[in-house]
Amino acid sequence: MRKKKPINAQDVAEACGVSRSTVSRALTPGLSVAPETRQRILEVAEKIGYRVNPLTRMLARENNELVAIIMSDLINPIRSSIMDTLVGQIQENGMLPLIFKSDSPSKIAGLVDHIIMYKVSVLVVTGYSIPSSVVTRCVREGVPILMLNRGQSKGVPTSVVSCDHLQGGYLAAKALVDSGCSRIAMVSGTPETGANEERIQGFLEGLEAHGLNLWMAEEGVFSYDTGCLAANRILTAESPPDGVFCLNDEIALGFMDTARTNFNLSIPGDVSVVGYDDIPISGWPTYNLSTIRQPTDQLISECVNVIMSLKQAPNEQKNIIIPVKLVNRSTLNSGRVNKS
User: Fold this and answer.
1) What confidence tens digit (pLDDT) does each residue in 141-190 have?
2) Over the stretch 227-245, which tens digit does the pLDDT of each residue have?
3) Model pTM?
4) Which of 32-36, 104-108, 118-122, 237-241 has the lowest mean pLDDT?
5) What share of the chain is helix, strand, coil (3-state, %, to 5)?
6) Residues near 163 by Cβ (< 8 Å), separated by ≥ 6?
7) Class of domain 9-52
8) Domain ranges of the chain
9) Are the CB atoms for 185 and 215 separated by under 8 Å?
10) 65: which DSSP letter?
């Protein structure tokens, strides 16, 4: 069966005996056209089944309502929660989010070639640090970049909305020291992320400020399995740690399960554990994990505000860093630990 040709604006124009530009003006709110002409065009368009393509109309504007988002994945619970709320708020503000997935920082440049063709108002990047070549390309094309929760972007002409990961790492170190730990280990996540690097930096500075060096370290990705593997290696050491900072909650949960199941250890009796993110499962009675909380509602609200600002003033650069805090539950030995 032959596919029916779609109705277009030219068909409406011919049916009404007017030009195509008149049809375009009549169907665009705010543009001047005689009321009786507009009414006739609307009636004919409805009768023959013509619908305006909003994407085509957006792409014809220099400053449209499209917001591109490049993310790494949605497996990470905190990232999926942020993305779910962020996309909803972008839509509520009358904008259209275009979501792109990148498996690595090296693939972002290829995505940006497609993104620029859409004439987006703002590009939001979360999950990876962005290559300098991409920043240069976007600046040249007039597309402002907003780095979301990747830490501070020093010397790079982008806007930043992020939780204070340096502070978070420092608070984790202080909490473990205050709980009486002296042999403190760290299990880090995906190395390509600015957030991971800043958490490590803050943690090491916190240990140094309290006269300690890092006892041992393991590296992986931000996953439950990384925590399990790290526990099997760290806890079989000749002199295992008495405190561990896991750079996200998923790592911490895997570490705790392995420590309890494979080594019959008590948490925090034998080893104290601090996570990062405060995902919902961390507060379940099974874990009751002490962790660093990211205020995601404030993070998203600030992100949307900056997006709206950059739409109007794309050459501006915003730098908003949001404080985090320790949520002290039951995986730290009792002592002088507080939330400051």
Assistant:
1) 888 999 999 876 666 788 999 999 999 999 999 999 999 999 999 999 87
2) 999 999 999 999 999 999 9
3) 0.80
4) 104-108
5) 45, 15, 40
6) 149, 195, 294, 295, 299, 321, 322, 323, 324
7) mainly alpha
8) 9-52, 66-163+296-323, 165-294
9) yes
10) S
CATH code reported for the domain at 66-163+296-323: 3.40.50.2300
Cα(197)–Cα(261) distance, rounded to whole angstroms? 30
Q: Of 119, 53, 77, 102, whose CA–CA distance to 311 is shortest?
A: 119
- Report residue 131 as tokens: 């290559």
Task: Read off the tokens for 142.
Answer: 């007039």
* Nearest Cα residue to 233 out of 257, 251, 213, 216: 216
Distance in angstroms (rounded) separating the CA atoms of residues 55 and 118? 9
CATH of 165-294, one of 3.40.50.2300, 3.40.1180.10, 2.160.10.10, 2.30.180.10: 3.40.50.2300
Tell which residue, 23, 25, 20, 29, has the closest CA to residue 46: 23
Whether 66-163+296-323 and 9-52 are alike in CATH topology: the answer is no
Three-state SS for 79?
A: helix
